[in-house]
Amino acid sequence: MSRLVIGVGFREQASAQSIGEVLAGVAAHAAMPGAACAIVVPEDKAAHPSLRLAAQATRLPIETVAASAMRQADARVATRSPQVTRHRGVGSVCEAAALAGAGCGARLVVTRMVSSDRHATAAAAILEESAP
């Protein structure tokens, strides 16, 4: 079975609606029924109330990744934000989180999508496993 994860990045003031908007957009673009799915965020964001509400609404579990794992995945991100690089050490939080969360050898299937209020981003990565 393939492992599909949605990486999420967001500002402190992000609402559950903003996060839900990008989750829905990425899930629609990924269109991979049957793939296991989780929301992956940096460790310091996992307890944010808006994230928890959005995850509950989508019935997706929240997983965390360490900053070091995100930096290791950074070479494979497609989007580069100088501001995010200064603050987080990666070009795109959501893309790096998705790649790190999906595992070694994962690839992006949906690059960064931004909420209409610009407070949340999401991307999807997949690790395709060979059949036994």
What would a concise description of this structure say?
This protein is α/β, with parallel strands linked by helices and 132 residues long. The chain has five helices and five strands, in the order βαβαβαααββ. It has one domain: CobE/GbiG C-terminal domain (Nucleotidyltransferase, domain 5).
Structural description of this entry:
- The protein is an alpha/beta fold.
- The chain has a single domain, classed as CobE/GbiG C-terminal domain (Nucleotidyltransferase, domain 5, 2-Layer Sandwich).
- The chain has 5 helices and 5 strands; from the N terminus they run E-H-E-H-E-H-H-H-E-E.
- Strands 3-2-1-5-4 form a 5-stranded mixed beta sheet.
- It starts with a strand and ends in a 5-residue tail after the last strand.
Write the H/E string, N to C.
EHEHEHHHEE
Shape: globular
Based on secondary structure, the structural category is alpha/beta
What CATH calls the topology is Nucleotidyltransferase, domain 5
The total tally of domains equals 1
* Strand adjacency order, main sheet: 3-2-1-5-4
| Name given to the CATH architecture | 2-Layer Sandwich
DSSP helix fraction? 25-40%
CATH H-tier superfamily: CobE/GbiG C-terminal domain
- Averaged pLDDT: 91
| Major sheet | 5 strands, mixed
Low-pLDDT sequence parts: none
Our count of helices gives 5
End-to-end gap:
10 Å
- Give the CATH class: Alpha Beta
Radius of gyration from the alpha-carbon trace, in angstroms: 13 Å
Instruction: List how many beta strands DSSP finds.
Output: 5
Q: What is the percentage of strand-forming residues? A: 25-35%
